Request: fold
Amino acid sequence: MVDVVAPQPGQAICDPACGTGGFLLAAHDYLAKHHALDRAQKKKLKSGTFFGIELVDSVTRLCAMNLLLHGIGSEADGQISEDLPVVTKDALAGKHGEYEIVLANPPFGKKSSVTIVNKAGESSKESLTINRDDFWASTSNKHLNFLQHIFTILKQHGRAAVVLPDNVLTPSLPLSRALALRSAQSISLASWRLGSLKAARATA
Reply:
């Protein structure tokens, strides 16, 4: 997925559901491998290129440690930067910047305890409601909400690579039609067979 979006030096890269930082590290390795970075670009790679959002505080700490072990979030002298590249918050609660590239594997599951209300005021009843005037569809489906959120945090001409269930982008869904109307271009769609993301079971 990182190879498809082909990040370039100086571009801001975000994972709004970063977990322990796998996508961010893959993007870091891609930039280091495919580009002859000058001193300023190497400094930018350590601080100011990667941004992660994670809902669970303990996972945020693991991600921060993982990134720091790879030099991300540290200063030139090896000291930890005051602004760590990953923060604990609900990414869907609001816009948290704009980026040239977004890489994400949003949480799996059809339903969320959070319902997003779009600018038209449409919603369904759930335990918690968040108003997002920049969303065009109201739903409690986490995948659809993350897809809308990712669209809002992309800069103009930005690129995103997102892991989604096979049926999310079916033409019959209102969100798919909205993406088409908003000139979102699908460059590449890869379909994985059922069970590809399930944990392997050890056999005796």
The chain has six helices and seven strands. Residues 200-204 have pLDDT under 50 and may be disordered.
